[in-house]
Design a protein that fits this description.
This is PmbA protein. Belongs to the peptidase U62 family. GO terms for molecular function: metallopeptidase activity. The chain has 2 domains: about 220 residues, PmbA/TldD fold (2-Layer Sandwich), CATH 3.30.2290.10; about 110 residues, no CATH class. The chain is about 25% helix and about 35% strand. It has 9 helices and 19 strands. The strands form 4 sheets. The chain has a 6-stranded antiparallel beta sheet with strand order 3-2-1-4-5-6. A 5-stranded mixed beta barrel has the order 7-14-15-16-19. It has a 5-stranded mixed beta sheet with strand order 10-9-8-13-18, with helices on one face. α1 packs across α2. The longest helix has 17 residues.
């Protein structure tokens, strides 16, 4: 796999060729990755996988016309053909007055920040197999667990480079290690319940011990055996940390530049207004040490810095790439996200700050409600804010978590949900988007 310097050189060569072929401007992204995964089931090896890939994406501009192309054939002839095709496509494309590279004066200058995203380590297939077996063994050892749906361990490394024709070139690499298990609990085939646990990190020495990951998966599955039904009604819903992060993700989707520019967001006129209760904050931190979405520059070559998205309940910013910023008459915010194609918008290490109330106290104030640990479906309307998802979890009665419940629906509207949520103080950084346990009062629950 190419080093960041070699990947940057490949991206630079592509934009140089594009300019020589008639493009007025261009940018190129190079992504290479290698990954090993080992899967086991019921104590036996099930699969060993190794994948490697390298792709080059090129975007060219002819005036205000643009085209994007990509290839995994990195031979000189293939790149030459790719460049010619891209320029020809751009000349035929419709004009877009908002299209273009990021403002040159906003580009990251100087050395690329080293965020320590690559630990330089590795994991052999034998070590991955041992880790997966240990995770599964711990999960199957939990009383009540009857079957394994499999456990896995993985290790990977990705190199990313970006170059633009107006002055930016840089690259970095990041490592990743993970382990997971999925198990079933219960005896009768029709009554079995499945649950899982997983952990992913950038540095291998920060990965949770295999027995901790497996035991958590087993305990989660065992706790869900013999679920009952919940009576329909209006009641408080407590979102476990595993699912509370989805509320933060939905908010970010509504403040992306494209949705605002197209006027297709339920938060269209909310900038500078109170959308969460006072004291509640949401942050984006691209430089978090070991963060799963940390990165030194955005998808257009702009520097990145921690951003307060919501402060004291007030929405502070949209998330803008250059095209959306031009359309809105604003400046890009450094949130352009880039795969092989054209840039979009995304947050990085996104989180809702911890509240002042313990999880136990948050639940203890509920006379009758539900603790949600799983969400099912895609029933979130980004235009209206209407929210309706299938769920599973546990009944809350007189301040205590009691029986498992399943096959019910929770519904509301995100504007009202956001305005009435209460975060607990149990925030943990386990994923790219994180949130503490959250309670929302007055949601509609429809039992099965």
């Amino acid at each position: 796999m190419l080093s960041p310097t070699e990947a940057t050189d490949a991206a630079l060569a592509a934009i140089t060729a594009a300019r020589a072929s008639g493009a007025d401007a261009a940018d190129a992204v190079f992504v290479a990755d290698a990954a090993d995964t080992v899967t086991v089931r019921m104590g036996a090896l099930e699969d060993v996988g190794r994948s490697e890939s390298a792709e080059l994406g090129l975007r060219v501009f002819v005036g205000q016309r643009s085209a994007s192309v990509a290839t995994s054939d990195l031979s000189a002839d293939a790149i030459a053909a790719l460049v010619e095709r891209a320029v020809a496509m751009a000349r035929l494309a419709p004009e877009d007055r908002w299209a273009g590279l990021a403002p040159a004066e906003r580009l990251l200058k100087g050395p690329i920040p080293d965020l320590g995203l690559d630990d330089g380590g590795d994991a052999t297939p034998e070590a991955l197999k041992a880790r997966a077996l240990a995770v599964e063994k711990a999960a199957r050892g939990v009383p009540g667990v009857t079957l394994s749906d499999g456990a896995s361990a993985s290790a990977s490394r990705v190199t990313i480079a970006l170059a633009t024709s107006h002055g930016f070139a840089g690259g970095y690499s990041r490592s990743s290690y993970g382990a997971s298990a999925s198990v079933l609990a219960g005896d009768a085939a029709g009554a079995m319940q499945r649950d899982y646990a997983s952990h992913s990190v950038r540095h291998q020495n920060r990965l949770d011990p295999p027995d901790a990951i497996g035991r958590l998966a087993g305990e989660r599955a065992a706790a869900r055996v013999n679920p009952g039904r919940i009576d329909s009604g209006t009641m408080p819903v407590v979102f476990d940390r595993r699912v509370a992060s989805s509320l933060v993700g939905a908010l970010v989707g509504a403040i992306g530049g494209a949705a605002i520019a197209r006027r297709t967001s339920f938060l269209l006129d909310a900038l500078g207004s109170q959308i969460l209760p006072k004291g509640v904050a949401i942050h984006d931190d691209p430089h978090r040490p070991g963060g799963l979405r940390s990165k030194p520059f955005d998808g257009e070559g702009l520097p990145m810095s921690p951003t307060a998205i919501v402060a004291d309940g007030v929405l502070q910013t949209w998330l803008l790439d250059s095209a959306a910023a031009r359309q809105l008459g604003l400046e890009p915010t450094g949130h352009a996200a880039r795969g092989i194609g054209a840039p979009g918008v995304s947050a990085t290490n996104l989180y809702m700050a911890a509240g002042a109330t313990s999880r136990a106290a948050l639940i203890g104030e509920v006379d009758r409600g539900v603790l949600v640990t799983e969400l099912i479906g895609h029933g979130v309307n980004g235009v209206t804010g209407d929210y309706s998802l299938g769920a599973a979890g546990f009944l809350i009665e007189r301040g205590e978590v009691t029986l498992p419940v399943a096959e019910f629906t929770i519904a509301g509207n995100l504007k009202r949900m956001y305005a009435s949520l209460t975060p607990a103080n149990d925030l943990e950084f386990r994923a790219g988007t994180n949130a503490p346990t959250v309670r929302i009062d007055g949601m509609t629950v429809a039992g099965g």
